[in-house]
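SUBJECT: protein chain
CONTENTS: sequence, structure tokens:
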Amino acid sequence: MITTALIHHSYPISRILLTSSKISIPYALLIFNQLLNPTTFLYNTMISSLTVHKDHIQTALSLYSQIFSHENLKPNSYTYPSLLKACGSHPWLNFGLALHTHVIKFLEPTCDNFLHASLLSFYSKMGKLGVSRHIFNQISRPDLATWNAILGAYAHNSSLSFDDDDLALEALSLFKEMQRSKIRPNELTLVALVGACAELGYLSQGVWAHVYVLKNNLRLNHYVGTSLIDMYSKCGCLSIAYQLFGQLSHKDTLCYNAMIRGFATHGFGRRKMHQHGHSTNLYTTMEWVL
């Protein structure tokens, strides 16, 4: 790339930065620091690569501040989502609040739905669900990413609130509104929906989500599978949860935790249930509930 002068073009450099950052962050930074006139696109590429690593969030914020040292550069809507995601936990929360003020200063009202989704997810992680909902209400035509963000915000906060079903009910209400808008749900949507059903004990709606996954050829990955296992366990259908657990090809720690919690809750602390034999058939029960 150096000998053919491709190194002077933004896109080839961005590919080098992306590849290098997966191998060695210091090497990627070395390349970036040698660029004479980095564009906002290249800053965004490097910032996004850095925010993947928790140890390099401060470096990413430093690079962000460098953008303002160039008279002809300013951040755009692609600059902020990765930074907001990185600042969604302690000790970076205050930096996330400062980034929101920059969004308003430099981008409003032109920022896109993806950035709005990043903002409402950030405030959800802070526990400020009211702010998340206010941001959502400002969007005239929410897309799938935005719907997923607000549904996930309500589902996540409802799981943290004991004896408060209002958030889970609001998540179900939002999902119905999403259906009326003709936006098709994906796996992330259904994880949030099933999570809300689990908190409320709404078995029929949870089974509907399971059937939707199967009928529409969506991936029954470990995220969807874990949420369904948790829902069936909380709704008293432990044998169905265990059958589903056995069908998942990939199980992570959260998936095992959900199944262990289900066993413990229903008094199976020492012995495990039979996956076959007298256990309830998964698909027969789904048909009965529907």
Observations:
- Residues 275-280 have pLDDT under 50 and may be disordered.
- The chain has 16 helices and no strands.
